Amino acid sequence: MNIFIMLAILFVNVVAITLIYQFIKRLPKMEKIIFIGISFAIMYVAVSISYWISGFGIEETVNEALKSFIIYIFVPVNVIILVPFVARKYYKLRQNEIDKADLIKRIIIVSIIGVIILAVQTIYFKQIKKNIESMKPTMTLDGESENEKPSKPMENTLTNEEIQKREEYNNSIKIINDKINSEILNQEGKSN
Hints:
By secondary structure, the protein is mostly helical. The protein has helices spanning 3-24, 29-54, 60-94, 100-135, 160-191.
């Protein structure tokens, strides 16, 4: 992948991890690592399923070519969108500020929002794949791409009658030019 794309993916992942960390920073170190790891793992599975569903009816080469890029971009994006709401409630649960039922309610609400987001992303992924698939050159029976095939020269098929008409037209234009030239010469001769 392009270095700029890799840097963008790295940046989005760092933003996602930092955002989650801000909500759970007072938890023990191991618990923070586990929470962040589980959050990313759940999003990876969800985005992978969404990507897989969007691949039905799409050429396999197009589907595989985009897989890593789309998954690596959308996993941290979904983490940024969904996980902070759960992380805050999880932290409050660990501090005994709320009970487990409140956390479960929040998880259900975020899950419903997540399913809606994933449904929209599935449609978006499918559209990206269709657009890329339509840009691929189509192959003809002789194995050449239609985009690579040289264009055939136009065939010149004039009938004898058309050739005769064109010759008559050219002759009439020549006669008119000759008359104009003789008139110009006559006028120049009279003025001298």
